[in-house]
Amino acid sequence: MRRLAVFLLVAILAGCGSAPLVEQAPPAPSSPFQAKRDEVVMYALGLMDTDYRFGGANPSSGLDCSGMVSYIYRNAVGMRLPHNAYSMAKMVKRVGRRELKPGDLVFFNTLHRPYSHVGIYIGKGRFVHAPGTNGKIRISHLDSGYFSRRYEGAGTLFY
Predict the structure, then answer these.
(1) Global pTM value
(2) Dihedral sign from CA coordinates of 57, 61, 65, 69
(3) What gap in Å lies between CA 9 and CA 11, rounded to an integer?
(4) What is the dotted CATH code of the domain comprising 33-156?
(5) Using one digit for the tens of pLDDT, what is the confidence trace for 58-75?
(6) Which residues are known catalytic residues?
(7) How would residue 127 be classed by pLDDT, with cut points 50, 70 and 90?
(8) How many CB atoms lie within 10 A of CB 61?
(9) E strand or H helix at 151, and its extent?
(10) What is the pLDDT of residues 1-41, one digit of tens each?
(11) Could you tell me which residues come within 8 angstroms of residue 40 by beta carbon, excluding any fewer than 6 positions away?
(12) What are 84-107's pLDDT values in tens digits?
């Protein structure tokens, strides 16, 4: 009887034991700029459906494409960019289409001028941009017929 009691006590105590909880650190960002890239994308998505306005530089009165990019980078990560897509294109480090990462800039020739339109890449072939008169900030796809024919390149400001 005593052996049975000892056996039951050991079995009960063994069932109550567990490994101590170890607090795990959050995963490290995949790159030193990942947090900034994420912030740029979140800021861009927060401006969805904002009205387009040629020359516009703030959401309350409307934004054009380069005004949108400039506004987002200034407010999301403290980077000051010119209010001009062509000037932005000269500032970036070129990246191939396969190397695009969220937060990178994508450029298009939409006015029969090089680098006349800019957007912010958000992943999976999509980008946020201010499309033009009577439009609103929206998401488009690089492979759409209109933009795929006018794509000029991409670049990053995170290097």
Answers:
(1) 0.81
(2) positive
(3) 5
(4) 3.90.1720.10
(5) 999 999 999 999 999 999
(6) 65, 117, 129
(7) very high
(8) 12
(9) strand 151-156
(10) 554 444 444 455 445 444 444 555 555 556 789 999 999 99
(11) 72, 73, 76, 77, 102, 103, 120
(12) 999 999 999 999 999 999 999 999
Handedness of CA 96, 99, 102, 104 (dihedral sign): negative
Q: β-strand 117-123 against 126-129: which pairing, if any?
A: antiparallel
Dihedral Cα 130, 106, 152, 123, nearest 10 deg? -110
DSSP letter assigned to residue 158 = -
Q: Which two tokens stand for residue 15?
A: 């069932």
* Measured distance CA(152)–CA(127) in Å, rounded: 14
Q: What is the DSSP letter of 114?
A: T
In this predicted structure, the answer to whether residue 108 has a pLDDT above a threshold of 80 is: yes
DSSP states along 42-111: HHHHHTTTPBB-TT-EETTTEE-HHHHHHHHHHHHH-----S-HHHHHHHSEEE-GGG--TT-EEEE--S
